[in-house]
Amino acid sequence: MTVSKKKSKKQKTPSWAIEPFKQFLSRTERLNDVLYLSMRGISGLQGMPKIVQVIAEIEETVEHKDTQKELEHANKCAELAKNEIKTGFPLLHAQATVNLWTLLEALFYSFLCNWLKNKQDSLLNDPIQKLRIRVGEYERLEKEERISYIVELLDKELGAGLRRGINRFEALLEPFGLSGSVPDWVQQSIYELAQVRNAIVHRFAVADRQLVDSCPWLGLKTGDEVVVTHEMFIKYTEATHHYVTELICRIAEKHGVDMSRSRAVLAKSRKNGKNELPNY
């Protein structure tokens, strides 16, 4: 008698859980591409005066008023480009830093909305059950808006917005059993990213006492200009991508998927160094 063996169905992570992460990856890739193109474009402006001069000589229009105006403009652009290159493109990196943090926040908001929408039993979790919902306000919302409303309330109830760095996100993940450990270098880099972003957005990129005390390793003094170097932005991007990969592993494991191979690869990317994490 032949006994047929049933093939065990391979566990899969649902597409709705991964989609926000794919969007995040796409947008961060575009952010890095635009940053690179902007740096290349600005660098190219240094050669403008020579091109204008050579063309004018060929066309014998060097003395023309329009040519002089064009040459003056080209020299001005070249000087601005030279200064940006010399200082390391601080404005570009500052804006990219703000954008990176915004994308990270948007990722969590989108993912949690998807999670509640597709896992209705999560609405029975203790922190969500205790939310003080204004019935009249809630009832006026469309179905999709209700999920967003709950996520916003949960954010406020847990005080996640008052926490710093990764702790902000881990607080939101904990009610769903998705929180976990993160390497020190990732924690510190994302913590720094959040603090630097706040200084750029709220203080005209000027260091205040909070930033100085929170990130002493930056060597800033109160009143110093906060300059995001290319190396700093690369560090923020690497740390953010490492953290997002960690989250994907947690979500997959929550759905019964074996992520041991992916975790082994992730572990190899961990950086060694002195732990300078502040007590926060």
Reading the helices and strands in chain order gives HHHHHHHHHHHH
Task: Report, as a whole number of angstroms, the end-to-end distance.
Answer: 66 Å
Largest sheet: none
Strand content: under 5%
**Overall form:** elongated
Fraction in helix? 55-70%
Q: What is the number of domains?
A: 1
Mean pLDDT figure: 89
| Helix-and-strand structural type | mainly alpha
- Roughly how many Å is the radius of gyration? 25 Å
Tell how many strands the DSSP assignment holds: 0
Name the poorly predicted regions: 1-5, 271-280
Please report the number of helical segments.
Answer: 12
How would you describe what is shown here?
This protein has 280 residues and is an all-alpha fold. It has one domain (16-268). It has 12 helices and no strands. The chain has helices spanning 15-44, 48-59, 65-87, 90-118, 126-129, 135-139, 143-157, 166-173, 184-202, 209-214, 230-254, 260-268. Helix 1 (15-44) packs antiparallel against helix 4, helix 1 packs antiparallel against helix 11 and helix 4 crosses helix 9. The longest helix is centred in the N-terminal third of the chain and has 30 residues, at 15-44. The model is unreliable at 1-5 and 271-280 (pLDDT under 50).
Which terms would index this structure?
single chain, 280 residues, mainly alpha, 12 helices, 66% helix, disordered N terminus, disordered C terminus
